[in-house]
Amino acid sequence: xxxxxxxxxxxxxxxxxxxxxxxxxxxxxxxxxxxxxxxxxxxxxxxxxxxxxxxxxxxxxxxxxxxxxxxxxxxxxxxxxxxxxxxxxxxxxxxxxxxxxxxxxxxxxxxxxxxxxxxxxxxxxxxxxxxxxxxxxxxxxxxxxxxxxxxxxxxxxxxx
Length: 160
Hints:
This protein is mainly alpha-helical and about 160 residues long. It has helices at about 5, 15-60, 70-80, 80-125, 135-155. The longest helix is centred in the first third of the chain and has 46 residues, at about 15-60.
């Protein structure tokens, strides 16, 4: 999946963009659901490992070098175990992927809104020019380039 490419709109083919929108949206909603499922599985795995370690520590505190068995000592010892750390890293990675999937679905919703507004503008003949049609992509890229140059100049200590 190429998130950035799928979010872009070709303003010269609004009809095609509208036809593709529901297909893209369902694909990313499914991706979001898959990421949520993976996140839930990783959380469950983490919880099981935590419970197993808790039980093991309570049965054999001397194996874990615990002198006094307290809840705090148990929890801290769990956090130090390699299998817990590994499961925690997997959970954090799944959470990151889920967060990205949520952001993409939001971007696809914004894409839909942008398509609606572009069609309205088209209906109002916003894109109709007396002589030469505007290239919105080129204009956007020019503005982005100007902003990038200003930011780069300011980063170097320039005034303007």
